Amino acid sequence: xxxxxxxxxxxxxxxxxxxxxxxxxxxxxxxxxxxxxxxxxxxxxxxxxxxxxxxxxxxxxxxxxxxxxxxxxxxxxxxxxxxxxxxxxxxxxxxxxxxxxxxxxxxxxxxxxxxxxxxxxxxxxxxxxxxxxxxxxxxxxxxxxxxxxxxxxxxxxxxxxxxxxxxxxxxxxxxxxxxxxxxxxxxxxxxxxxxxxxxxxxxxxxxxxxxxxxxxxxxxxxxxxxxxxxxxxxxxxxxxxxxxxxxxxxxxxxxxxxxxxxxxxxxxxxxxxxxxxxxxxxxxxxxxxxxxxxxxxxxxxxxxxxxxxxxxxxxxxxxxxxxxxxxxxxxxxxxxxxxxxxxxxxxxxxxxxxxxxxxxxxxxxxxxxxxxxxxxxxxxxxxxxxxxxxxxxx
Length: 394
Fold this sequence. Notes:
Elements: E1 2-6, H1 18-32, E2 36-42, H2 44-51, E3 58-62, H3 73-86, E4 98-101, H4 106-118, E5 123-127, H5 152-170, E6 174-177, H6 180-188, E7 196-198, H7 205-209, E8 220-225, H8 234-247, E9 253-256, H9 261-273, E10 280-284, H10 288-296, E11 298-303, H11 312-319, E12 324-327, H12 332-335, E13 340-343, H13 348-360, H14 362-376, H15 381-393
C-alpha cells in the first residue's frame, strides 16, 4: 500500500513528543512489512526519523528559508505560516491509497487535504492525540473547575483544532484518539461515532529488556521524563522534591527532556530558589539506550502532569521496572489499572509522602513493580502497528 504522510509540525528537532515517537515506531514496522511511505517534510525532520531508526521512507523535502528552532511563539508562527502558504504550491504525488496525518496541526492537515484532492479515492486518517484545552482553563485546569486568563498560544491551539476537526469531517476522514474521554469530546462536537477510533501508545518490551545499566549510569531516587511544558507539572515537581529532601537531604531527582529555552530557564530558576541545585539534575533530551538506562537505575517515576491524553512515558517507565507516582487524572482509569500511585491534583505533600514511602518500603515498591510489568506488557508496538494499518486500509 502507498501512504502519503505530511510530517510538517516539528520546529524544534531536539525534543520528541509522544505522538512523534508513536509514528516512528509504527512507520518502522509498516516499512518492514513492505508498504511505501511517501513523506513530505522539512529537511530538518529527516534527522529526527533517522535517529529513531526509521529508514526507507520516500522523502519529499519541503523547502523553507528558516533555520531557527526556537520554541518562541513568534518563531513557531513564522515557520508554520510559511509552511501553510508554501504547501499550496507544491506538487502532490498521485496513486496514493491512503493519507495519514500524524497530527491535527494545520501544517499537517492542510497538505493531507490537498493530497486527498489529488487522490480522491485515498482513505484519510488524522491523529488527534491531544484535545486542546479550553483556553480559559488551560492545561492545569482540565480536570478541575478553575479558570485562568487565556494565553495567545492557548487560544490559537484551541481555535485551529476546532477548524481542523471541522475540515476532517468535511473530507470524510477518520480521527484517531488515545482515550475514550477524548472520543466523547469529539462526539459532543458532532463528529460521527463511526469516524472516531480509540487507539493506544505502546512500548517495545524486548528492546527494553536488552539494555543493561552501566556502572557509570547515574542513580536517582526519582526521575521525570517528558517535554518541559506547563502541562507536565514541573513547577509542582520542584515543590515535591523540596519536601522529599526535607526528609532525606541526599535524595536526588533527574529530569530528562527538552523544551523551550524560556521554560528551561524558568525551571532552573525555580530549582535554585528551592535550594535544590545539588539534588536535581536537568539532564536534557535523551533517547534510546541512554534513556532506558537512566530509567532502569532510578527508584521511582514522578509524573505530576496536570493533563495527559495517554501517558506514554509512564508505560516506558513501567517497562523499565519503575513504580509511577502521579496525579489522579481521569484518563488513567482506563489505561493504568496498576503500577501507579495516584494523588489528587495539586497535592504536593501527598505526592512527596508517596515517593518517600517507596524509598522506605521495599515490599511496597516490589508490589507496584510487579503490577507495572503486567500493565506495560499490554502495549505492544507490533500489535498496535497492525491494528492501525487495518484502520488506515478501511
